[in-house]
Amino acid sequence: MERKEFKAESKRLLDLMINSIYTHREIFLRELISNSSDAIDKIYYKALTDDNITFNKDDYYVNIDVDKDNRLIKISDTGIGMNKEELENNLGVIAKSGSLQFKKDNEIKDGHDIIGQFGVGFYSAFLVADNVTVISKAFESDTAYRWESKGVEGYTIEECSKDSVGTEITLKIKESTEDEDFDKYLEEYTIRNIIKKYSDFIRYPIKMDVTTKKPKEGTEGEFEDVVQEETINSMVPIWRKNKNELKDEDYENFYAEKHYGFDKPIKHVHLSVDGMIRYNAILYIPEKTPYDFYTKEYQQGLELYSSGVMIMEKCSDLLPDYFGFVKGVVDSEDLSLNISREILQHDRQLKSIAKNIKNKIKNELKNLLKNERENYEKFYESFGRHLKYGVYSDFGANKEVLQDLLMFYSSKEKKLVTLDEYVSRMPEDQKYIYYAAGESIDRIDKLPQTDLIKDKGYEILYFTDDVDEFAIRVLMNYKEKEFKSVSSNDLGIEADDSENPVDENENKDLFTFMKESLSDKVKAVKASKRLKKHPVCLSNEGDVSIEMEKILNAMPE
Ligand code: ADP
Ligand code: MG
Q: Which UniProt keywords apply (predicted)?
């Protein structure tokens, strides 16, 4: 028997790994099952290219055995196995991934199922075990080997016997301590739950003996334990399943599993479209903005599958930019498998799916706004700004899609209102949709320019985002009502001149003096009927409002 130590870096890394990378000990099972699935996939790929190998699906599976009395969990597979060299290289060197190498050697590009790539997952076994034994017999090899390790100290390797090709990994589960319960990993239902949670879509059966209580024959009301082998994973991806069989929780689990976000999505949509182009999709509207959402680093897109095989991790063409926050998967049988990325971009089917998805998202958001106002406001707080950018970009090409989804703070309601709500309660004599731009709601509240409009009983929309006024300029009007800044020269409000006419000559000297003192800072100083409580206010002539001018001036050249 040979005894070898892990390389020095490996020791440190292993320590680090075991204690810090993973926060949930239970993922050890996900990692080991993924490795088994990869090992079976490798045989499958070999069979694809070699006529001498037949791949009979029934012969390929993962088996989980729990031996509670001896504190053992065994994960066995009928995969490709490892020879001595592979055991040393793949399990003896941390951060070495035999699976990544396999993908390279076999020129398997994106669109594969092999999961491994980082070469660390295996060591997560030590999160729950103080001893790990691997017995493996490689494909087309006569000898089997046993690899054993207690963690950082190193490993031993020796020849052993094993009948069939494949790998068996046995974990000796740690003893529970006062702070930490390890016994639970020896419970059938814990193991079962972990498999369900992380490995439900593994394409090969994950089998396990399950004990159930059944009525004992020939007795009345007596039960007995019956042990039966069960396949725990459903193997079928969630989007291929029937909506009626799925609970909110299933969708939320999938969202978390896929790392779409750390939040709980506000809404999910499950689509099974059976038209000209067939596709299944699950789309999510997140609740919170990802930390990098408003940066260049953020990559939008949906996962694209073709017949259950992943083609692209982030297919950005499936979403318009203004809905870039949407997460999810699309799976279509009508995309051919061998399409390259470039061809996909110009794929007619893809475009048609994208259009369909755009409309679905729009309708979903409209429904949310109509039926779940509170949730919509949560969503809007995270992504409202993004929608407004959407209105502004592409020269307003998307305004029809987006204008009904916008909200602004209202002087009257003291909360966010939609444009539709604003317009529908406009008094008959009100010509325009008034808005005031400023730094904060408080500041805008105090603007002298708002006095006259509020006095008339008209509602004012408060613009506190830089993009607001730009977006509204692109819209120009809503339901034929033009937008009007409160600092505009002409507010369209008829002042009652007969009672209190402005005498142009009164204070003429004062105005001249003011204009001269302010020189080119203002264009003119005039008497105004707009003011109620304030002595003076600023107003602008022409299209660019004072607030917009500030933003434009602050922009880098
Ligand atoms: P990764 O899966 O990211 O490559 P792991 O640490 O999980 O990293 O595994 C390291 C390597 O060990 C794998 O790439 C694979 O070559 C090999 N390996 C692990 N488990 C098995 C197994 N059950 N059958 C065959 N090879 C395995
Ligand atoms: Mg792995």
A: ATP-binding, Chaperone, Coiled coil, Cytoplasm, Nucleotide-binding, Stress response
> Residue 156: helix, strand or coil by DSSP?
strand
- Residues written for the chain: 557
Query: 97 CB under 6 A from ligand 1?
Result: yes
Between the two ends of the chain, the Cα-to-Cα distance in Å is 72
Q: What gap in Å lies between CA 321 and CA 329, rounded to an integer?
A: 17
d(CA 21, CA 89): 22
How far does the centroid of ligand 2 lie from the alpha carbon of residue 244, in Å? 34
Residue 199 Cβ inside 6 Å of ligand 1? The answer reads: no
pLDDT tens for each residue of 294-305: 888 899 999 887
Contact indicator for 477, 438 with CB cutoff of 8 Å: no
Query: Tokens at residue 293, please?
Result: 């959402």
Which SS3 state, helix, strand or coil, does residue 312 take?
strand
Q: State the complex-level ipTM.
A: 0.99
The three-class DSSP label of residue 470 is helix
For residue range 437-492, what is the model confidence (pLDDT) as tens digits?
988 999 998 888 888 888 889 999 999 998 999 999 899 999 999 999 988 877 87
Pocket test for ligand 1, best of 35, 45, 80 (most atoms within 8 A of CB): 35
The Cα angle at residue 472 between residues 287 and 366, in degrees rounded to 5: 40
Element spanning 351, H or E: helix 348-371
> What is the Cα–Cα distance from 287 to 296, expressed in whole angstroms?
20
